[in-house]
C-alpha cells in the first residue's frame, strides 16, 4: 500500500508519495489551493490518490515547540478530517515541528538557489514528514 504525505500550508500543499513497500518517500508536486475553500485541492488530490493507488495519508501537524496545537495545527486537523471524508482513506497526523527547517537545510547543503528553494520547499517538507512516518513504522 502506498502512502501520501502532505505538508498543508495556507496557500500550498506539498505532496510526497511512498514506494509500494512503504520504505521511501519521494517528492511529487506542490498543489496551490485556497485554505478558505477546503475543497479547492480535491480534484488534484483525487487524481494523485487514484493514480498512485494511495491507501493512507500522513498529514503534517504543526505543533508549537511546547507541544500545544495552535491555529495552523487546528487547520491541519480539519484538513485531515476532510481528506478522510472526501477521499475515503485513513489519515495520520504527524508531528512536523522541524520538517520545513530540515528541508531548508537539505536544500541549502545541496546549494539550491533561493528562487528554486522557494519552489520545492513544501514538497521537500512533505518528504520529511512522510519519511519520518515510514521510518518509525518499519
Automatic annotation (TrEMBL):
Its signal peptide is none
Query: What UniProt keywords apply to this chain's record, in alphabetical order?
Result: Cytoplasm, Hydrolase, Nuclease, Ribosome biogenesis
Q: Report the transmembrane regions from the record.
A: none
InterPro entries linked: RNaseH-like_sf (IPR012337), YqgF (IPR005227), YqgF/RNaseH-like_dom (IPR006641), YqgF/RNaseH-like_dom_sf (IPR037027)
Q: Does the keyword Hydrolase apply?
A: yes
Q: Provide the YqgF/RNase H-like domain boundaries.
A: 1-103
User: Which Pfam families did the record assign?
Assistant: RuvX
Q: Please name the Gene3D superfamilies in this protein's record.
A: YqgF/RNase H-like domain
Keyword Cytoplasm in the entry? The reply is: yes
Top enzyme class, one word, equals hydrolase
Compartmental location = Cytoplasm
The text of the family note is: Belongs to the YqgF HJR family.
Cited function: Could be a nuclease involved in processing of the 5'-end of pre-16S rRNA.
Concerning PANTHER family, the annotation shows:
POLYNUCLEOTIDYL TRANSFERASE, RIBONUCLEASE H-LIKE SUPERFAMILY PROTEIN (PTHR33317)
Protein name (Swiss-Prot/TrEMBL) = Putative pre-16S rRNA nuclease
User: Which species expresses this protein natively?
Assistant: Virgibacillus byunsanensis
Amino acid at each position: 500500500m502506498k502512502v501520501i504525505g502532505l505538508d498543508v500550508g495556507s496557500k500550498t500543499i506539498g505532496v510526497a508519495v511512498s514506494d509500494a513497500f512503504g520504505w521511501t518517500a519521494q517528492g511529487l508536486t506542490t498543489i496551490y489551493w485556497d485554505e478558505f475553500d477546503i475543497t479547492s485541492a480535491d480534484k488534484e488530490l483525487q487524481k494523485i490518490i487514484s493514480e498512485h493507488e494511495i491507501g493512507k495519508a500522513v498529514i503534517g501537524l504543526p505543533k508549537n515547540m511546547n507541544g500545544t496545537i495552535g491555529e495552523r495545527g487546528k487547520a491541519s486537523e480539519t484538513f485531515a478530517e476532510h481528506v478522510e471524508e472526501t477521499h475515503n482513506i485513513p489519515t495520520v497526523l504527524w508531528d512536523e515541528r522541524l520538517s520545513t527547517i530540515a528541508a531548508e537545510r537539505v536544500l541549502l547543503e545541496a546549494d539550491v538557489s533561493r528562487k528554486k528553494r522557494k519552489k520545492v520547499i513544501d514538497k521537500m517538507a512533505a518528504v520529511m514528514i512522510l519519511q519520518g512516518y515510514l521510518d518509525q513504522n518499519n
